[in-house]
Amino acid sequence: MTAFTLTSLLNNTFADFVPNEHLHTEVHQKDELREVYNSIVQKSKDAPLYMLDRTGAAQDYAVRLKEDARELQKAINSMVSDYSTSILDQKIASSDDENYVLAKYIGSAESSNDTSFNISIEKLASGQINEGISVPNNEYALEPGAYSFDLKINDTDYEFQFNVSSADTNVNILNRISRLLDRSNVGLKSSVVNDSPDTSYIRIEGTNTGKTVNGKPAFVISDDNTSRKSGAVASYGLNNLTHEASNALFSINGSPHQSYSNTFTVNRTFELTLKQPTEDRTINIGLKADLDAMTYNINHLAGAYNDFIKKAAEATNNYNGSHKIMRELNRMSLHYSRAFDSFGLNVQNDGTIAIDDEQLNKYISGSESENNLDPLQEFINSLVDKSEEIAIDPMKYTNQKLVCYKKPGVNFANPYMTSMYTGMLFNSYC
After folding, report:
1. What end-to-end distance do the CA atoms of the chain give, in Å?
2. Residues 35-58: tens digit of each pLDDT
3. Same domain? 135 vs 200
4. Eight-class DSSP state of 193
5. Which of 222, 256, 287 is the last residue of a domain?
6. CA-CA distances (angstroms) from residue 182 to 206, 225, 302?
7. In a domain, 228, yes or no
8. What SS3 class is residue 74?
9. Are residues 343 and 316 in the same domain?
10. Which residue range is the domain that position 411 belongs to?
11. pTM of the full predicted structure?
12. Does 130 have pLDDT greater than 70?
């Protein structure tokens, strides 16, 4: 099996368990990957020899546990900034209305709480749109043969080729061209629009927003000098530009600004994402009060933990195997339950955490709250360690039979065995 085929199979498997929005946003440094690898090698060196459960159910279970643990890690990491490793003292951005503007704080600990401003949105940034010619679905515009067309985008040229048979109607060819563009991953998304029961046209949109520097179209499609038969561009209007790429237009405290993207930073303090024009109103962006920020972070943490507990329980029930992971998680939460009770965090029978907001607010606003929240920080640290442990070796929670222990102190690392014990760690987005 080639490496390309193996990678494709793994990606198709992981796509069932991982939200698409995380595939391109997770970045690792070399030293982080090296640390993970070294942990895996060390674990394989000292781990006993097991007879692993190789059933499809066990594989699905291991992958689900691993990915759910990584989601929990990312949820915790999203609440940690460069200036502190504790989520209990993070500043939180606030937006009057998140239907119009999403705000994220990216500043330092020294930023004051009076860095608020007002923003009004006139227009969102958009990409170029080409809408083709409406053609009858079941008629034939192209003769059989091998066709091609050229695409110029971001100063890069591509050629797309496709075949047309005598049985291919217009709608068949439009869908084929649309799939070609969608799967190419060159910065375009395409669809076939049925504008009536009997006619359709192709819609091609650039994923990059904002005007080009030279004012030219963001992408151009032609078949004037292509290598195969021409005619597809003219027959279906592939280069029919109907909407030019445009910048976002907005005002901050009355001062006009524009941006190539709908996501940008302000004063290196806030990252804003524009959602829709505000018309005649303004949206206030600022920082939550320290008490509100702490309450928000604790609720966010509890929500992420509860979501992980529920997913782990569901996966375990579907697998109908070992309940080891649920026992470990329950022991961990019960260990802190007495300390949690004092500030409004109640551990439930299923291991999830319910929050009494009134009691929590009253507690953390008290003079001794800083020291008394230490058990919560310890729980967070334990949670990070446990999620890393699960992500490194989810196979330990499957039904596996112990064969023998290794002789202590005389074992050698066997890096070729790592994937067996790590639940297929190495995939193309990890």
Report:
1. 21
2. 777 777 777 777 777 777 778 888
3. yes
4. E
5. 287
6. 11, 23, 39
7. yes
8. helix
9. yes
10. 3-86+292-422
11. 0.62
12. yes
Is 427 a domain residue? no
429 is a domain residue: no
**Sign of the torsion formed by the C-alpha atoms of 61, 64, 68 and 69:** positive
Both structure tokens of 274 = 């524009």
Same domain, 220 and 261: no
Distance CA 90, CA 211 (A): 36
351 burial class (0-12, 13-18, 19+ CB within 10 angstroms)? buried
Tokens of 277: 């024009």
Domain assignment present for 283: yes
- Asked if 215 and 319 sit in the same domain, the reply is no
The angle, 0 to 180 degrees and rounded to 10, between the axes of the packed helices 56-77 and 374-392 is: 140
| DSSP state letters, 325-371 | HHHHHHHHHHHTHHHHHTTTEEE-TTS-EEE-HHHHHHHHTSTTHHH
DSSP state of 94: E
Residue 187 Rama label (left phi>0; alpha psi -120 to 50; beta): left
Could you report the per-residue pLDDT of 66-110, keeping only the tens digit for each?
889 988 988 887 766 554 556 666 778 889 999 999 998 888 766
Strands, E assignment, 101-223: 101-105, 117-123, 129-131, 135-136, 145-153, 156-164, 188-196, 199-206, 219-222
Task: Note whether 170 and 25 are same-domain residues.
Answer: no
- What distance in Å separates the CA atoms of residue 424 and residue 74, rounded to the nearest whole number? 19
Continuous segment of H or E residues that includes residue 397: none
Q: Which of 50-64, 102-116, 326-340 has the highest mean pLDDT?
A: 326-340
Contact present, 226 and 149 (Cβ < 8 Å): yes
Residue type, 304: A
Distance, CA of 404 to CA of 407 (rounded, Å): 9
Please check whether residues 342 and 196 belong to one and the same domain: no
